[in-house]
Amino acid sequence: MNLTDEQKADIAALRATPAQTLRATSEGMERHLYEPKPVLDHGFVRVIDYMGDDTAITQAARVSYGRGTKSVSNDEGLIRYLMRHWHSTPFEMCELKLHVKLPVFVARQWIRHRTANVNEYSARYSILDREFYIPAQDSLAAQSTTNNQGRGDTLQGAEAERVLNYLRDDAMRAYDHYEEMISTEGQQGLARELARMNLPANIYTQWYWKVDLHNLLHFLRLRADSHAQYEIRVYADAICEMVKDWVPFAYRAFEDYRMGGENLSAAALDCIKRMLAGEDVTQETSGMSKGEWREFQAMLD
């Protein structure tokens, strides 16, 4: 992660001047404010602002005035009830604004979550830095033979070195040409908005991303999952650590019911009941397709 001296000074200044407020704050999230958390080789994620805490969720659910007379244990129990029964609106009362630096190909996957407010660094007006994501060797993998959008075995030895050289050399060559094409003093050159089209998808971009807690947890459920692509999963993992400190009750419920739980179809639930009754259930007698049965078996293992 590369921060300029100006960025470091700005972060230090922001953290050195706390602001007095009457609004609810989260002690856990205050520790994260402004601090960049390194991700990948040049990326980071940092909290710029947040609104609400666990109490904001329960307050919205009860539509009460202030904290009321409910105990902490009742608050956690209510949050678990809301999570268990898929009540989304109370979780929308909390919001988080992040500053993220990430490779363009990760950003294009991330932006598919169309439930946030996003403002991205503009390569029409500014010149992108010479920073590219180059995977560590243990992250280089062949195409999976069973999953069209997944990875297989890790590349080794000369094959891994060959691929890494291509990634480095092609990225640097593309950036050299990008610089040469751009308009400079004494050279008409090409407009920045056109020159950028020659840049590779592993160049880094930055954006501000603001989202409510309900939609953030949906993002984390998908992107912090072990099946998610590694390069976006590490960002989700970093955000998970922040959310855990921000809304601990909500995050524990999220871990239990979303990350650690399973949703069962009517057919799957029927199979479990039959198995508990002693019946030997097979794919042929389950009422499930082969794919559903394979996932069902994996859930039980």
TrEMBL record:
Transmembrane segments: none annotated. The lineage of its organism: Bacteria, Pseudomonadati, Pseudomonadota, Alphaproteobacteria, Rhodobacterales. The active site is at residue 223. InterPro entries: Thymidylate_synthase_ThyX, Thymidylate_synthase_ThyX_sf. It catalyses: dUMP + (6R)-5,10-methylene-5,6,7,8-tetrahydrofolate + NADPH + H(+) = dTMP + (6S)-5,6,7,8-tetrahydrofolate + NADP(+). The keyword Transit peptide does not apply. This is Flavin-dependent thymidylate synthase. It is an enzyme of class 2 (transferase). Belongs to the thymidylate synthase ThyX family.
